[in-house]
């Protein structure tokens, strides 16, 4: 894909304005409702990108005059934003959507919408069309910006609507948003993925890579900092590809430098960084920018070069380890995390153990670990996969045991230290009522008063376990 500008559709301001008019029309319809404003219930599966998308959907719902409820039974409109990354994620959604048939029987006016990555797949949309007839509206991530128009169609034409055309992806600026807290915010800097890792569904459902203009991103971040947000996470499937499709030459490191110039007391995090495109320039920029957290999520997937090749990851074990070395040289305090897939088709026990040896070598602070799940339509789903699920589980458990030990050891080394943390909310635990994060993103359960939420404080770490640190605000 040499010129993504040609295929990525930038949604014009007039089009967004037109969508706002659909919001206004729906708001008008809602104003006359006898029982007060309709209530919307949203449920989100999958990654932060989906969380960010749901915040836009909620922004549009608010403009339509909806209130929000946490109780699906009280809802007039239900929006389920789905994930297709593993079979389990899809099964869960089919279960939830299946159950909604009863809600619809009780309340025929209930509107049920299914969107996100699952919905973008034709097989899923067809299954919903035929077997889940209580679902009113189905649309993929590419059509998110026209949710108001689609919903208006459902309301006025009294028919089911499916909008899953692969439009190669779109970029829509200026959509309204409802953010979850006043402390942390998500900012998408790009959409889609061009990498086609052989196991992964994302490029098929999220379209080709496309970058937002730097000026739009900078304006959004500046606004968030002015509103008092303390932690802003930049999102993209591979943030290191940022800018490749823009007219003005700018890469991700350049973007970080520009954002870092925005004055204020805040931290910038980002995910995800693809190892093949991460390098010296990025690490030096991270080290030099005071607002950029010294934290790197650098998914390795496997520690075996043969498997990495079959995965189409574009790096070997040695090249990956060299990047880790470079990152640590630039930032000795860096907190490193990763994603791992165990049981890729054709992986042997010996190869899986190469992954265990890699994590022993790197000593990640934490890992996100998955057992391979075949995704129809991807190349890996057609590869021979002789190892049994039970065998894969044994390898997986070995990996977890090793990582739990390493995380436990690294966490224990914090005990007795004083660290600066951002208090981001309540923990739900009476003994340690606050939840907070170190600059490197490690979770610290904290003793202290609610008034600290949203503030950076010095905390003394007094205890730790495999998953978290415990401490008291000073
Ligand atoms: N763009 C990110 C990953 C997004 S998906 C990146 O390249 O790092 C998040 C994680 O889900 C992946 O890193 C991978 O570890 C896992 N994953 C993706 N497809 C999978 C599959 N078919 N089976 C199991 N895990 C998978
Ligand atoms: Fe999937 Fe690979 Fe793209 Fe990540 S980089 S979203 S794993 S295809
Ligand atoms: Fe899932 Fe789509 Fe994210 S498949 S992981 S929600 S990009």
- Strand runs, count: 21
- Measured as a percent range, the helix fraction is 25-40%
Order of strands, main sheet, comes to: 3-2-4-5-6-7
Radius of gyration: 23 Å
Distance between the termini: 54 Å
Structural class: alpha/beta
The averaged pLDDT comes out at 94
The ligands bound in this entry are: S-adenosyl-L-homocysteine, iron/sulfur cluster, FE3-S4 cluster
Number of continuous helical runs: 14
Oligomer: single chain
Point out poorly predicted stretches: 1-6
Task: Please report which band the strand proportion falls in: under 5%, 5-15%, 15-25%, 25-35%, 35-45% or over 45%.
Answer: 15-25%
The largest sheet is: 6 strands, parallel
Query: Judging from the principal axes of the Cα atoms, what is the shape?
Result: globular
Structural notes for this entry:
This protein has 474 residues and is an alpha/beta fold. The protein has 14 helices and 21 strands. Residues 1-6 have low confidence and may be disordered. S-adenosyl-L-homocysteine is lined by residues 85-86, 199-200, 202, 237-238, 272, 274, 299, 301, 339, 341, 370, 372-373, 375.
Which features does this protein show?
alpha/beta; six-stranded parallel sheet; five-stranded mixed beta barrel; 21 strands; disordered N terminus; binds S-adenosyl-L-homocysteine; binds iron/sulfur cluster; binds FE3-S4 cluster
Short description:
The protein has 14 helices and 21 strands. Strands 3-2-4-5-6-7 form a six-stranded parallel beta sheet, with helices on both faces. A five-stranded mixed beta barrel has the order 17-18-19-21-20. A three-stranded parallel beta sheet has the order 9-12-13, with helices on both faces.
């Amino acid at each position: 894909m040499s010129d993504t500008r040609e295929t990525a559709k930038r949604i014009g301001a007039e089009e967004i304005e037109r969508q706002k008019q659909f919001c206004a029309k729906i708001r008008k319809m809602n104003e006359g409702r006898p029982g007060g404003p309709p209530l919307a219930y949203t449920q989100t599966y999958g990654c932060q990108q989906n969380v960010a998308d749901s915040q836009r959907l909620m922004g549009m719902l608010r403009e339509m005059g909806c209130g929000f409820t946490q109780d699906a039974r009280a809802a007039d409109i239900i929006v389920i934003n789905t994930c297709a990354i593993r079979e389990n994620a899809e099964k869960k959604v089919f279960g939830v959507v299946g159950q909604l048939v009863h809600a619809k029987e009780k309340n025929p006016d209930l509107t049920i919408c299914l969107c996100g990555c699952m919905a973008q797949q034709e097989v899923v949309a067809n299954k919903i069309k035929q077997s889940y007839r209580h679902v009113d509206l189905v649309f993929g991530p590419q059509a998110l910006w026209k949710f108001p128009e689609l919903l208006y169609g459902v309301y006025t034409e009294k028919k089911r609507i499916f909008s899953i055309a692969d439009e190669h992806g779109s970029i829509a600026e200026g959509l309204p948003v409802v953010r979850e807290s006043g402390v942390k915010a998500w900012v998408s800097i790009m959409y889609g993925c061009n990498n086609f890792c052989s196991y992964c569904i994302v490029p098929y459902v999220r379209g080709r890579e496309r970058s937002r203009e730097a000026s739009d991103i900078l304006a959004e971040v500046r606004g968030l900092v002015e509103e008092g947000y303390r932690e802003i996470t930049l999102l993209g499937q591979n943030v290191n590809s940022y800018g490749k499709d823009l007219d003005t030459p700018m890469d991700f490191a350049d973007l970080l430098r520009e954002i870092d110039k925005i004055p204020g007391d805040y931290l910038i995090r980002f995910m995800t960084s693809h190892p093949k495109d991460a390098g010296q320039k990025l690490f030096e920029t991270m080290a030099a920018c005071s607002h950029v957290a010294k934290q790197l999520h650098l998914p390795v997937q496997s520690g075996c070069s043969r498997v990495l090749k079959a995965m189409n990851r574009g790096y070997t074990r040695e090249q990956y380890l060299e990047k880790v070395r470079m990152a640590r040289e630039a930032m000795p305090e860096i907190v490193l995390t990763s994603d791992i897939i165990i049981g890729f088709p054709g992986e042997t026990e010996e190869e899986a153990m190469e992954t265990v040896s890699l994590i022993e070598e790197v000593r990640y602070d934490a890992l996100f670990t998955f057992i391979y799940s075949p995704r129809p339509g991807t190349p890996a789903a057609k590869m021979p996969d002789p190892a049994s699920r039970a065998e894969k589980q044994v390898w997986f458990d070995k990996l977890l045991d090793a990582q739990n030990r390493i995380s436990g050891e690294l966490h224990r080394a914090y005990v007795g230290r004083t660290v600066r943390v951002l208090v981001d909310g309540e923990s739900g635990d009476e003994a340690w009522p606050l939840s907070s994060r170190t600059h490197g993103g490690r979770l610290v359960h904290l003793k202290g008063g609610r008034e600290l939420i949203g503030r950076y404080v010095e905390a003394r770490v007094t205890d730790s376990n495999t998953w978290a640190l415990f401490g008291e605000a000073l």
